[in-house]
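User:
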Amino acid sequence: MTTRTVGFDLDQTLVDSTERIVESFRSAFRTMRIADVQPTAFTPWFGYPLEEILQRVAPGTDPAEFVPLYRRAYDEERPGEAGPMPGARDALEWLRDNGFRTVVVSAKHHPVVDVALVDAGLRELVDAYYGDHFGEQKAIPLREEDAAFYVGDHVADMHAASLAGVLGIAVVSGAHDTRALREAGAASVIPSLAALPATIERLLD
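Assistant: Predicted structure:
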């Protein structure tokens, strides 16, 4: 394996955007006069496309009306926190210092990927990013970037890694446990990104 590119999922892998996402939903719901939704209702659906999360937590809501309100809240109001996940900055700095490129591939709307990375203080450590890719669609930019690894918290991330022919490294920081991530094809499962440098070194041996 000679390629030196590592792909990352965004939400709950590099960036802890839970509060920002939930509060942006709730802001849009208030504007639309939709009943409030408890934060725990969102947990199983983090990592899915925005429109799918909407139908899971507020079935029947018109996405054409909701999405602009959500994106205005997320991009302009920026409610709640959106900081780096534990170990994220150190892992990215280690990759940069050891000659790796880093690429983010996310289901999040493309321009909002940049917003999330900037707010988390990670943008300068990421070489490229792709938004609007979910599940198996993530395999496309992973192949184009000739990635060696894809790091994510979702079973769909591991499926994408397998489809792209790269090694999937799963972080137990989202809705899926170790068993589910292994069954989805993860080559390695780690508790946080603090373990990523040692994991990559082991997988490259």
